[in-house]
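Before the break, one more example. Copy the sequence into your notebook; we will annotate it together after we see the structure.
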Amino acid sequence: MGPVMQINLSGKTALISGATAGIGFAIAQSLAESGATVYINGRSEARVAEAIQKLTKNVPSAKFHGITADLGTAAGAQIVYKALPEVDILINNLGIYEIKDFFEVTDSEWQNIFDVNVMSAVRLSRYYTPLMVKKKWGRVIFISSESGIQIPAEMIHYGVTKTALLALSRGLAQAVAATGVTVNAVLPGPTKTEGVMAYIDKMTADSDKDFESIEAEFLNSLRPTTLIKRFASTEEVANMVTYIASKEASATTGAALRVDGGVVNCIL
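Here is what the structure looks like once it is written out:
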């Protein structure tokens, strides 16, 4: 038998945007469990403090730091650069979504979702990637979505931003080829996050159905191609991200890696 794979991120520093809840929070915990020093970002000081408290309770041996900044703005990005001059692992996770008819989405709503979902990732990657290249090691990871491949008719603007992240990820991977820095996108499918649970809770409050019934209904009507027939957990998404962040994943770059439960109906 060959050596057992053990992911060890000791000595590595990671930054995760939008990490006070959901997938970002799970990634923070997973990276910390593997030994990384983790910086989490959120827009509210209270939310950042609460997340760090929870993370420290979950992983007492880990080092967590918080940076409060609105990364949907250039000024917010400057706050992050000053607080954290360089990182080894950058997770562009920040994202917002809203179910809204395409014909009702205004210019300012388009601009806002693009600023938050895409420009936050552009700014952080533009700043931190060259510093990784100098050190000849780094990981840049974009949290895209299966919605970037199969655009949801109920939130086209969201799908467009997730497609943009795929283009950004592939292009940046090519720009830093052969430097020791890898760049990849991870594509979660329907995932059991706080936001999704709040949405489901609202639906269950208006009916006598339980979570499992609403989950099945949602998947059957909006994501019928799912192969696992359930929402993924945030931990399942974080597992993929932690592997991609490790030295063990050094031959994977320029890739779009799906953790979508088979929702995307293609063989690549």
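The helical segments are 22-33, 45-58, 74-83, 107-135, 156-175, 194-205, 211-222, 234-244. The chain is about 45% helix and 15% strand. Try to locate both features in your own notes.
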